Protein 1
Amino acid sequence: MSVNPMKIFQLKGLWDRFISNHPKLPRFAQAVAQNAVREGTVIEISVATSDGQDYVSNFRITQEDMELLREAMEIMREMQ
């Protein structure tokens, strides 16, 4: 599978705009990554829609997940 460099550049612009609109998210993610993300940690995600519906899910981090998260964090650092 090849990656189109222009798509990556476009994604970078969209990500920068997203972070600009939600400036607390990077600090939160950094604090969690530094202090809480380790094997056995449970991550819970909650979404409340504008029409009042709630969606909640969670998962426990495995060693395999840690490898993926390390790679994803490295990619995110390179995008900054």
Protein 2
Amino acid sequence: MDEAALAALRADPIDWRYKGFPAADPPPTPTSVGERGWSVLAGDLTLPVLALREDALAANIATMRAWCAAHDASLAPHGKTTMAPELFRRQLDAGCWAITVATIAQARVCAAFGVPRILIANEVVDPAGLGWIGPAQRAGTEVWLLVDSPAGVGRLAAARTDGDPPVRVLVEIGMPDGRAGARDAAAAEATAEAARAADGVVLSGVAGWEGHIHGDDPAAVEARVDAYLGDVRGALERFAAAGLLDEADEVVASAGGSAWFDRVAAVLRPEIGRPVRLVLRSGCTVTHDEGLYRRLSPFERGRIGDGALVPALEAWAAVLSQPEPGLAILGMGKRDVPFDIDLPLPRWRARDGAVEAIGDCAITALNDQHAFLRGPAADGLVVGDLVGCGVSHPCTAFDKWRLLPLVDAERRVTGAVHTFF
């Protein structure tokens, strides 16, 4: 990655632009903030704050590195989860094959910080977006992307200019009622043939996304996931048999969100007579969570025993008011924490720097800046207490913060991480 760009982040003053950090003169930087001795539990940060546990991040990155090595898989974590170049650096240093993104805007962030290989797990069809790819590749960023129609391939090929490096593409295999992706074998093969014939486009494999499959019966969901992954595998095998992959210097089969990557590793193993790189795009494993992925992760479902993931995100807020029995109003809301899948999950109470489990309570509603905590434990709180919560769905947590404090196991600030949404 680009050391100068990362150094600029590390030297960025932590001032009024960044919520969650106190005023200080002179302001610290992410490099020096650990010297201030600030602690979440001591009330040194302005609340609310969303903190990243340093120990959990390191453990999760190491766990996924070991799991992928043991299962002959490469990891290209979806950067849209964090959009944090400092975390991209850690993941790439741990051996990740690429950083995945969903949009050209996200790809530009990666390129600006020197990510060497970017997988755009999406179709790109707009002129400005297509026009960015050639200059980015000429500057040294390797760009892969998805196609699902001859029309999309045609727009990609037409946008190229003389001297642009070839663009590697993966045919996206879709499903009925899914998002983008070729819906049947005929559409997939027409797309592959168009990519094979297009100047400056190299058909390099297939991609899919099994995360759209859900339901109340885990066994039924797993069966549907396996069937879909079998379709993705079959498409690649057909492309290879037809000679459509002959120009590819590397063949890739990619799928795998943060819930079913174990099934991807088990099922998506095409046999085509040459090596195929299996690329997982699991983005939320870097932080895990206390809600969605606590329920769905293969580690949590007991399907795989070789490792564990640890929730790394903690939201802390102060008790602002106790206006009636069984209710405490906390100073955090929809602008601070994710709420699209689960509301924050109360875990700890801190008073005078001492932390303990909070007891029986739940957050039942959020306003823009307030949380409604109800239950017997609410009556044991006092105004000014701190309440720490786990969160659900990291993808909608990071986007609410331009800078997150890194904290150690005692919630002392050790650094900071920027986001670019």
Protein 3
Amino acid sequence: MWRKLTVATCLVLTAGPAAAYIGPGVGAGMIATVLGILTAIALAVVAIVWYPLKRLLKRNAHSSTATKVIDDSRET
């Protein structure tokens, strides 16, 4: 039993190079997939950060404009 396990382990650890070929279409598809996934992750992060920040900036701009209108009406 130990002999079979030793032989199996040696065969797995000393595997030779595979004679595999990846064509240009598959390689380009893999690159496009990886870039698409990375872009989707980046856009998700931007959406999580930008949209609440945009809402906060719009709320601050709106409140400062309303305050200015009230101050202008008091001057007259």
Protein 4
Amino acid sequence: MELEYRNVLALAYVGDSVYEIYVRKYLFENGIEKVNELQKRAKEYVSAKGQAKYLKEILDHDLLTEKEKQIVLRARNHKSHASPKNTDIITYKMGTALEALIGYLFLSNQKKRVDEIMNFIMERE
């Protein structure tokens, strides 16, 4: 089975970790070394609200290929039994869609593409 047709929640699970590593690395490289400050600033990026905002900007700038858009749509539309704690379901699904995209790109060895998308996100702040 091709990777883009695999379970989007599994892709999001992997993407969540990859996304967080990029965020932490970016913050550390930009001089934030106090753990409390790292955690506080990272939350701006890794929360469902932050991820949904960045995905919207990616979509608004038409940065995704058709295959990438399909993955985002599948993840966003996936019937989830999870109940988000601190946000509404639509924001949660958008965050999951961004994570699935990053997971897909990472697992398909498209590191350059992950870098491009993550650099776009990091440039937003």
